[in-house]
């Protein structure tokens, strides 16, 4: 096992490339080009070579065939796979919604008064959109910031950030506008903006321009006649800041247990808050 690179914010093989992802085995910082997906997290090239050599030795000794199909290997090698899957699901849902006369919108949108009896809406509401331009803007933002954050955080942390931000938007709607039906991934995407700002600042980069863009987009939601759920945006931003802060403070490999515990705590608090709000406890 080798020592981590002296600069924890850049790839040990490419010092000019920033990254937030550590090799699960040795703890070195690695950029997307150097990452190989593993069962948990990603591995650096040196650790991969060691594993492959051991695997080949074991396979030759046992005569067992490889368990991965060609399609499985290709998907494992795909960069930003979670972002691609989230965009694909949203687009497929929108297309099906159009051909079914918006039947999916009625079945999947988030509506606080029924969240306790139809809890799937807490998640499915993120994947339905009201118009072509609504999904176009959301998927464009998810494609741009999702790929960057997935490169920096890794797939599972990125997914945790996305869904926690979405839950934050649901909770804010439940508390501030409980009788308003809400659709779209805007809350989750605003959470990505906020987390990206926090992470960039922690790495020493100036992210003020992103903060200005986020603020301008947030202000648009308060304009009359826009039919935009500013509550979901605010909730997503708050959870994005919180989750981004958790990531920056628990980056060390030895803090993985603490990081997981904090993320699970966030999810539990959000879900309990949403379900209690749906039953009118906070009314």
From TrEMBL:
Keywords: Hydrolase, Membrane, Protease, Transmembrane, Transmembrane helix. It holds the Pfam family Rhomboid. Gene3D superfamilies: Rhomboid-like (1.20.1540.10). It is found in: Membrane. Signal peptide: none annotated. GO terms for biological process: proteolysis. The keyword Protease applies. It is a multi-pass membrane protein. The keyword Transmembrane applies. Residues 117-248 form the Peptidase S54 rhomboid domain. SUPFAM superfamilies: Rhomboid-like. Belongs to the peptidase S54 family. This is Membrane associated rhomboid family serine protease. It comes from Curtobacterium luteum.
